[in-house]
Design goal:
The chain folds into three domains: 192 residues, Rossmann fold (3-Layer(aba) Sandwich), CATH 3.40.50; 92 residues, Rossmann fold; 78 residues, 2-Layer Sandwich (Alpha-Beta Plaits). It has 17 helices and 14 strands. Strands 1-2-10-7-8-9 form a six-stranded mixed beta sheet. Helix 10 packs parallel to helix 12 and helix 13 packs across helix 15. It is elongated, with a radius of gyration of 25 Å.
Amino acid sequence: MTAKPVTAVEASSSLPVTLADIEAAAMAIAGKIERTPLRYSRTLSEITGAQVWIKFENLQFTASYKERGALNKLLSLSNAEKAAGVVAMSAGNHAQGVAFHASRLGIPSTIVMPKGTPFVKIEHTRNFGAKVIIHGEALAEADAHARQLEKEQGLTFVHPFDDAKVIAGQGTVGLEIMEDLADFDAIVIPVGGGGLSAGIATAIKARRPAVQVYGVEPAMYPSLSAELRGEEPKVGGATIAEGIAVKKVGRLTAEILRKLMEQVIVVGEDALERAVNLFVTVEKTVAEGAGAAGLAALLEEPHLFRNRKVVLVLTGGNIDTRLLASVLTRSLVREKRITSVRIIGNDQPGLLAKVSTVIGENGGNIIEVFHNRMALDVPAKGAEFDITIETRDARHTQEIIDALEAAGFPPRTN
């Protein structure tokens, strides 16, 4: 989905958040958050065909950019509002940002999180000093409960994205990028509710209107794409990018992005998984699914960025360790470095030993063996083996398969 390009004058006027607001936020939060590095990636540039620069917001103390906006909002509260406390709803990163900085400022905080929130994000939020309430199956239900607590207890609601102070705080990412990089052609930003992209777009378009701003959404939650088309979003499903799995973008953020964003790119789960894996294996850094969405966009739509200088915002690194392990293992399967082969033969002593010998002599590592005598598609005097092997790469896997066939044990690959 493509938005109408704007001039510098248009970008700096008639919007809910201005460059001056973002510059004020930068002064307010200076020294209280990490000024994260912006680095060039030679390997990712070779893989994608673009000149790739990465803004490592996963290096914030809470491992996400979200604390920028949360802190700017908290600092804007009156003394009475601070004393009464704040409430927020979040699937994780906003929750941690609010909890950490509220605790540091002596502000009581209550965070409502939906049931599907990754355990690591719930625990971190509690450890940062917030009262955590698990409520509802989705963010909408958590939001409704948080709004109820706001009214009943006189708390200040800290919205994760649809708040001018929060948007301005997130926009400080854009200021830092422009301070560190003299020129670039495009920036690619993960989009959930739109707070980060709206803030960064406001800052960049005000100073460098020629830079193209791209948003990225998971295919299961194309909320901004639908909003820009004037349609009701059709969303739902389990995505590894739960941090941007938002049913509807904010009112303020949509107003900004409709004017300032060139295009929204929708990416599939395979691309998100590949991006998470590449950040680990190439950059030696951890990215959650949402945090890796910018790189996923380059993998899905390389023609848009080829030979251009592109900034990716790695928005966060709070991924459940079991999910990360699964993503990394699945990448080995995609690359055929882990493969399952099925061998059917006569059920006689020594058969498995012979097969194992062939695999071992050809450099394969057997991870798992399942021996099935009961399958009805196997002869009564036969046996079926499912063998999972680890190899160097796809070529090595094929060499082992060829060796098994030559030895009289033709495998079926799963």
